[in-house]
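[step 3/7] inverse_fold.run input=structure_tokens len=136
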């Protein structure tokens, strides 16, 4: 077995890993949105649905960020293997850019909105707890 066939094998494996992680990233997003819609639809049953929404938003955003990081790490090895077999079409990842793709932006937005909702709800809860009234 020569080196080129080893690089082809690495390239094929890393490309499949990329495809899997990319599908998983957007699948997680879809699950998060579905769970939020379900929580909101049952809000009339329990008044604390907003806690669940914030938790799901934060969880979905963090999982997407973790998957994005895995895709970036995979891309480094994929690019090395691709260069060795003559495929120069794999784009480089620029670490300087916070939002390398729309999925990074979506993940950050979901996380920030989830944390904001959680902090807002905690502030209301604290105000109600201190004043013993539901005026906040």
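[step 3/7] decode complete -> sequence:
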């Amino acid at each position: 077995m020569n080196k080129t066939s080893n690089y082809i094998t690495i390239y094929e494996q890393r490309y499949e890993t990329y495809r899997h992680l990319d599908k998983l990233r957007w699948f997680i997003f879809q699950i998060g949105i579905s769970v939020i819609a379900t929580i909101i639809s049952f809000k009339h049953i329990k008044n604390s649905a907003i806690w669940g929404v914030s938790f799901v938003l934060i969880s979905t955003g963090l999982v997407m960020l973790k998957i994005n990081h895995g895709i970036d790490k995979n891309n480094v090895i994929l690019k090395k293997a691709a260069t060795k077999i003559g495929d120069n079409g794999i784009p480089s990842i620029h670490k300087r850019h916070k939002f390398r793709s729309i999925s990074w932006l979506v993940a950050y937005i979901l996380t920030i909105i989830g944390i904001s909702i959680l902090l807002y709800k905690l502030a209301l809860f604290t105000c109600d707890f201190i004043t013993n009234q539901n005026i906040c």
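[step 4/7] annotate
The chain has a mean pLDDT of 83.
The helical segments are 3-41, 49-85, 102-131.
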